[in-house]
Amino acid sequence: MQMPSGRLSQPPAVTVDAPARLHLGFIDPNASLGRGFGSVGLTIDGLGTRITARVADETRVEGAASDAQRARIERYLEQLRAAYGGPPVAVEVNATPRAHAGLGSGTQLALALGTAYVRLAGRTATTAQVARLLGRGSRSGIGIHGFDHGGLMVDGGHGSNAAVGIARLPPLLFRQPFPDGWRVLLVDDTSREGLHGDEERRSLAALAPFPRSLAAHLSHLVLMRVLPGVAESDFDSFTKGIGEVQQTIGEYFAPAQGGVFSSTAVARALAAVASQEMAGIGQTSWGPTGFAFLRSPAAAERALAAAREASRANPSITCMIATGRNRGATWHAAEVQKCGIDAA
Fold first, then answer.
1. According to the CATH classification, is domain 1-177+325-344 in 3.30.230.10?
2. Is Acyltransferase tagged as a keyword (predicted)?
3. Residue 311: how many CA atoms within 13 Å on its side-chain side?
């Protein structure tokens, strides 16, 4: 989200809505041609992040989903105030996805807070500047580009300068609107969390080098199946490409996460879907949330029923249908009395 230039008016309160994102796979985790990772991703409606921030007499956080989320918000606010000045800010968390489920909740929360704070302080900053300040985008740029643009995206990963500590946002190589008629079935295992933090870093470091031949294969799939498929609304090409990308990258990460899917219950539900419908199935990021792309609302409803039937004995499994989101985050000035936080 590009902030307007020049001196800005300072609203008393700002509400930001940021979309959840699906990370559909890395292209070259080993930087075989000098660029590490590279990502394919999609923003979706539903399961987004909404926060309201307002000028206050002291820093406060209301509605945080956990103590860890509250501490993260407080840390972000300290960093933002040190960088941009401004008065204390009270934050109300209106909605966030479940943390560490593969939906990009940490990045969207950081960018939403940064967007609101900069507006309240009457300052200007790009999304990339906020992300760099708050330490987001160290591997994938999909969450940051999704915040700005929405849709289906491919980023170019980090160049060799990343190895010497120069953090730059991976360039956006491709952005295409996601077809309106397609649907995404999401299957989450609420008893599990995806790898994150130090555990994620240790797991990545322990993996074998990613073969250059597989990076070439993934590049070919993305360039000649996934991208033409979404550009031409060719569902079969898109889903076959995504499915093969997911199988290839899932097998590589299997030693770190216990299999192609991190949750066997999610894998079982998606297998039931794939047995009945043409669907591109996979796992977003480290999971445990899995996905299935469906060609129509009717196909999505049938897939939802199949996933629920396959998961009937497991109460930790939740399923829902989402649509692609072809716009980025939005913000608006909010009335103080509507923020849910008492005026100072």
1. yes
2. no
3. 27
